[in-house]
Amino acid sequence: MKTDYPHIIEQLKAGATMLYPTDTIWGLGCDATNDDACQQVLKLKNRPSEKSFIVLVDGFPMLERYVPDFHPICYDLADLATRPLTIIYPNVSGLAPSVLAADGSVGIRITSDPLCLKLIQGLRKPIVSTSANISGEKSPASFGEIAQQIKTGVDLIIEERTTEQMNQASQIIKIGLNGQVEVIRK
């Protein structure tokens, strides 16, 4: 079955939530600038509102639109990463308030996954990428392990790579305003 990307993108523009394969694990997502859609993802995950989401972008130009205090060391970190790398940036702007942590920071990853790139480039905005599980439960390693509550709670399911095992979360690094680096998850 061929994925109808134009339809999916129109739905995301209208505030839909989705279940989709990412460059790391199965994710729940939506337009990262649409607070109503982000609130739906929070509700579906039963996640505390003070926890931020990870956001996917298609490259540095999009990243720099949302991170006004972009430190140049981030170019090197992204270039040297051997697997997907999420960087937590301070003082992010232009994203939905419910995407951000209480201190205004958010984790952003530049994805190279073809499916994710089609969604981001079609939407022309970042997308939320949070694990497809109820908050506090183990992240599913396959489509079959995703809770029925999640599958029935989203507006869209992108049924690509449903037979693949996907269980490697991204590395997470936090960047300070002065370029200090803190490893959160290896």
From TrEMBL:
Write down the species: Taishania pollutisoli
GO MF, one term, reads: tRNA binding
What is the enzyme's main class?
A: transferase
Q: Which InterPro entries match?
A: DHBP_synth_RibB-like_a/b_dom, Sua5-like_dom, TC-AMP_synthase_SUA5
The organism's superkingdom is given as Bacteria
Catalytically driven reaction(s): L-threonine + hydrogencarbonate + ATP = L-threonylcarbamoyladenylate + diphosphate + H2O
The name this protein carries in UniProt is L-threonylcarbamoyladenylate synthase
> PANTHER family given for it?
SUA5, THREONYLCARBAMOYL-AMP SYNTHASE
PROSITE patterns associated with the record: YRDC
- Say yes or no: keyword Cytoplasm present: yes
Similarity annotation: Belongs to the SUA5 family.
Q: Does the keyword Cytoplasm apply?
A: yes
A Pfam family recorded for this sequence: Sua5_yciO_yrdC
